[in-house]
Amino acid sequence: MQRPGRHRESAGYQKSFLIDMDGVINKGHTLIPGADEFVSRLERGEYPFLFITNNSYYTPGELRDRLAALSINVSVDHFYTSAMATASFLKYQKPHCSAYVIGGKGLITELENIGVTITAAHPDYVIVGETEEYDYQKIIEATLLIQEGARFIATNPDLTGPTPRGSVPACGALVAPIEKVTGIAPYFLGKPNPAMMYWARRKLNVHSANCFIVGDRMDTDILGGLEAGMTCCLVLSGETTREMAERFPYQPDYIFECVGDIDPRRIASRREQITGK
Q1: Quick check: is 158 catalytic?
Q2: What is the pTM of this model?
Q3: I want to staple 123 with a disulfide (CB 3.0 to 4.6 A). Which of 54, 100, 129, 213 is the partner?
Q4: What local confidence, expressed as pLDDT, does residue 168 receive?
């Protein structure tokens, strides 16, 4: 199996793919038809690719295991999460900083990997991500720390996340009471922030002009890809219908019923669209 970042052509010309997960590859514990064949096409063509997700709760290893249970077997190197983007941001902005964290294992692991000290004692940052341990005392502590000078960041702006029983509050909803009290909005690192796209492409060592984003949401996947200069592919197997997509002032380059309809050889990169080559 080809490792991310290794490809036959130079980074300036090789097509590469950033692929959202829920709504594109799977719906909960169910594989979307054709998703496994699409991944096989990428592997056979030696196209660099990453599964890119705003969910900061799971580690890359856990995400690998979740896809393996759906018969898609890839290495942990093929995942990039908003927790990883948050860690990349902190490593660039303030190495070896401290943070008060409300988040799951995926976020905490990435922060610890880059040497962030997790503490409630005068932290540099308050960081919020998806978690199952969100209570009033933590909201109070985060609120007070921000008022005392801690900077406020969050993994992603999604208000809801999918479960088999329906939508549940995600990171964007969890930060709302803290923002209301402090009057300070968090800086979100996940999609549609182009910074997340930049660090994901950097992991693959590819250029934006030849990078495709494949997603099911106009407000995160497609907007983020557009602002990062990538070719945008919307699939209708998740959150967005064709009618909903038409209401947005910006549009994807391609619309597919599902990811199984995408042939990497036949779709044109933004470079090809501009230059005709």
Answers
A1: no
A2: 0.91
A3: 100
A4: 83
